[in-house]
């Protein structure tokens, strides 16, 4: 009788073990093996840009030495994105921006916003915070906000050092850097069209390779989809760009500060949309907003917004009932 009870008990234990193994197996992620021949026949979608020609979707690191102006540059980009203003020769589609600026206060932030050209903004377009949870708690908070505000297409974290988890002192440098960056990259992978820009510092020691100048281990560059590094060479500032989805032939650009903003040296003066308007005005002389809208093939409201932006830049003026090129 006792042997029979033991056998029953063992059978129950065996059944429980099999059930646990089944549950573990079903909980494991399923990895699919695919055929490269089929991939070569697929129609691949083009790169999705947050800022056309400059910032594709994904995780970008913007690095420079202290006080060079990296926060000024990323704030300039944030304002262009939130307001739909051109940036370095590119027409930027209007989008919602979340800026987590952990190295400033509201007084300094307002001054920086004004320097970046933001005299006024549409409510709800540029969201900001000067205090935020660190590490995974902070990343989870970003994810929650992205779920609540799906229109957010650009997230800025300034700076990585103030955002990352400071309690993981026992990790080696590579593991700590990777743990700080990888979850941010995953946020981008899980949300099409999302770009996250992390502002970071360069190390003090000089390096011939811009990537080696990043403060920290190689995991920071390895986990990022793109890297912008501002370096001072003599009296010039050089922006070096390296990215997985970079589609330009150039990867170095000379930039300079002008009236509180960064601009490309010898860069294009006009965006493609602005050039189209100027060409029409040059050929046809003065034109009304509806006439320009019809000639451009856009709605009159869109044409009016474009004309007002160009007027604010001093490219055109409204005189005698028509839009004309500024002299």
Descriptive overview:
The protein has 327 residues and is α/β, with parallel strands linked by helices. The chain folds into two domains: 49-264, 3-Layer(aba) Sandwich (Rossmann fold), CATH 3.40.50.300; 272-325, Orthogonal Bundle (Arc Repressor Mutant, subunit A). It is 40% helix and 22% strand. It is built from eleven helices and 13 strands. It has a nine-stranded mixed β-sheet. It has a two-stranded antiparallel ribbon with strand order 1-2. A two-stranded antiparallel sheet has the order 12-13. Helix 5 (135-148) packs parallel to helix 7 (173-190) and helix 10 crosses helix 11 (300-312). The model has no long low-confidence stretch (mean pLDDT 85).
Features:
single chain; Rossmann fold; Arc Repressor Mutant, subunit A; two-stranded antiparallel ribbon; 11 helices
Sketch the topology as an H/E string, one letter per element. HHEEEHEHEHEHHEHEEEEHHHEE
Q: In total, how many domains does the architecture comprise?
A: 2
Let me know the number of strands. 13
CATH architecture of the largest domain: 3-Layer(aba) Sandwich
Q: Order of strands side by side in the largest beta sheet?
A: 5-4-6-7-3-8-9-10-11
Helix/strand class = alpha/beta
The global form is: globular
What portion of the residues fall into strands of 2 or more residues? 15-25%
Write down the CATH class of the largest domain: Alpha Beta
Low-confidence stretches are: none
CATH superfamily of the largest domain: P-loop containing nucleotide triphosphate hydrolases
Radius of gyration equals: 26 Å
Indicate the mean pLDDT: 85
Portion in helices:
40-55%
């Amino acid at each position: 009788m006792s042997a029979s009870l033991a056998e029953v008990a063992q059978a129950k234990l065996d059944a429980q073990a099999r059930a646990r193994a089944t549950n573990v197996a079903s909980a494991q992620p399923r990895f699919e093996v695919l055929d490269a021949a089929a991939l070569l026949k697929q129609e691949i979608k083009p790169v999705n840009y947050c800022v056309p020609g400059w910032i594709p979707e994904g995780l970008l690191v913007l690095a420079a030495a202290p006080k060079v102006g990296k926060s000024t540059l990323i704030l300039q980009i944030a304002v262009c994105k939130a307001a739909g203003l051109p940036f370095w020769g590119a027409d930027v589609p209007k989008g919602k921006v979340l800026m987590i600026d952990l190295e400033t206060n509201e007084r300094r932030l307002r001054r920086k916003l004004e320097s970046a050209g933001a005299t006024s903004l549409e409510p709800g377009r540029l969201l900001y915070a000067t205090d935020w949870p660190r590490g995974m708690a902070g990343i989870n908070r970003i994810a929650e906000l992205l779920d609540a505000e799906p229109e957010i297409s650009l997230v800025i974290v300034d700076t990585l050092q103030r955002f990352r988890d400071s309690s993981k002192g026992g990790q080696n440098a590579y593991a700590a850097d990777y743990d700080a960056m990888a979850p941010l990259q995953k946020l981008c992978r899980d949300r099409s069209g999302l770009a996250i820009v992390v502002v970071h510092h360069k190390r003090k020691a000089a390096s011939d390779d811009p990537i080696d100048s990043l403060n920290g281990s190689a995991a920071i560059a390895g986990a990022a989809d793109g890297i912008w590094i501002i370096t001072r060479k003599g009296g010039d500032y050089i922006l070096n760009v390296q990215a997985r989805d970079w589609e330009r032939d150039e990867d170095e650009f000379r930039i300079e500060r002008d009236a509180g903003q960064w601009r490309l040296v010898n860069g294009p003066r006009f965006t493609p949309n602005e050039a189209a308007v100027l060409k029409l005005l040059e050929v046809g002389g003065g034109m009304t907003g509806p006439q320009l809208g019809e000639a451009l093939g856009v709605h009159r409201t869109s044409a009016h917004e474009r004309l007002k932006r160009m007027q604010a830049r001093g490219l055109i003026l409204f005189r005698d009932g028509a839009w004309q090129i500024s002299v």
